[in-house]
UniProtKB/TrEMBL annotation:
Chain ranges of the SET domain: 34-282
A single MF term (Gene Ontology): protein-lysine N-methyltransferase activity
Cross-referenced Gene3D superfamilies: Rubisco LSMT, substrate-binding domain (3.90.1420.10), set domain protein methyltransferase, domain 1 (3.90.1410.10)
Protein name: SET domain-containing protein
Keywords: Methyltransferase, S-adenosyl-L-methionine, Transferase
InterPro entries: Rubisco_LSMT_subst-bd, Rubisco_LSMT_subst-bd_sf, SET_dom, SET_dom_sf, SETD3_SETD6_MTase
GO biological process, any: methylation
Amino acid sequence: METEGSLGSLLRWAADHGISDSVDQPTSHSCLGHSLCVSFFPDTGGRGLAAVRQLKKGELVLRAPKSILLTTQSLSLEDEKLDMALKRYPSLSSTQKLTFCLLYEISKGPSSWWFPYLKHLPQSYDILATFGEFEKQALQVDYAIWATEKAALKSRTDWRGVEGLMQESNIKSQLQTFKAWLWASATISSRTLYVPWDEAGCLCPVGDLFNYAAPEGESFNAVDVLSFPSHASLNDELELLEEQRDSQWALTDGGFEENASAYCFYARESYRKGEQVLLSYGTYTNLELLEYYGFLLQENPNDKVFIPIEHDIYGSSSWPKESLYIHQNGNPSFALLSALRLWATHPNKRRGVGHLAYAGSQLSVKNEILVMQWLSKNCHTVLNNLPTSIEEDNQLLCNIAKVQDLQVPRELQKTLLTYGGEFCAFLETNGVVNRDEAESHSSQKLKRSLDRWKLAVQWRLLYKKALVDCIGKKIRMV
Ligand SMILES: C[S@@+](CC[C@H](N)C(=O)[O-])C[C@H]1O[C@@H](n2cnc3c(N)ncnc32)[C@H](O)[C@@H]1O
């Protein structure tokens, strides 16, 4: 675990190059201390940034000058050989270029200008592309498995695309491997910030220590404005507009500011001393958080759960497929309800009631019952077809947590062997089938696989809970 002490050299280097958490007090030994400090938050991202004093909403908490942002442009401006090499491969995507640049810079070792930053990057990641076959299957739900396969395929294709460039550039052979590429692309995926001049974004030393909090719900999109009750008073409408301004603000808590030529981070809310200061990286479902960042949120207002939907339901309305989902709390999305109401209407009558369905109104009691029955039946079918129940997943997570708590590697592996079921499959996949092998196996590798497996089980459990909540709500309504 790295804390402020072990990050001392990074914070000093960052201060020397203009990063500061203070508007008016330049500090020499650390870029932090006036507004923020590095701290450890075991349940919300591990290493992160905490408030060292009361922070007001909207206050500037960190500023990083453009010159310290690691981008394809900043690296190639400094290194003519790199610049020439990239020019020979104009068809590479901006993300491929930045990923390559990161490996190229790391290959320089301590002589790299960025070394004080690079040496503190995480050693491993849990994004979907790093999931092995076992962890992928543990997701259980087809579209999640498919997203994992797609992510892995994309990483491999991107890597193949830079093979020539890697060989020409003479970067260390261990940095040319797919394993190294996966690490570098996970670094880019989970740590870059948006900049207007490069689609791949930038790596911002210290600024990339902010952990994530989700922006709240769908409150600033057309669907909710549409569903706003027509009998609301003027005051209600003003309140809604206020909320919308707040949620828009929540999406802009950090950004590159051209006039300051710096990345600036603002407190998205007021924080008490010691509280973790969080950043919203954007609006993501749990599957997307897993794909790009390697974690998920137990409570995610932006999560979406999809179930198979028959073709005639898509055909009975004009809602796009991706808008037909169930919220984490079990409520069907506005579009899903509307589409089901139209589908449950006789085709000859759909035109006549379309305006009501699209505005979110119920069409009739009978129609509503058909909709609720469809939801209940289909959620049940999905749940029954999944290989494990919520209770089994809960038990599995308890056992995984017990194993993770074990400090002595031998104990970890032996305990793993005492659990049956999916644990046996997990051990087999990791090449451990008997006690002797358990003792010799690398516990670091096992722990990493265990972390990813746990994420997969957590994801499928939240998926199932949303469906159960959906069924519960429907039964109460019908
Ligand atoms: C930009 S980094 C944040 C700093 C990071 N914790 C570190 O030690 O360098 C993003 C990564 O932090 C972790 N993270 C951020 N927010 C999190 C959260 N709310 N819960 C769990 N992990 C989180 C994830 O591993 C994510 O990929």
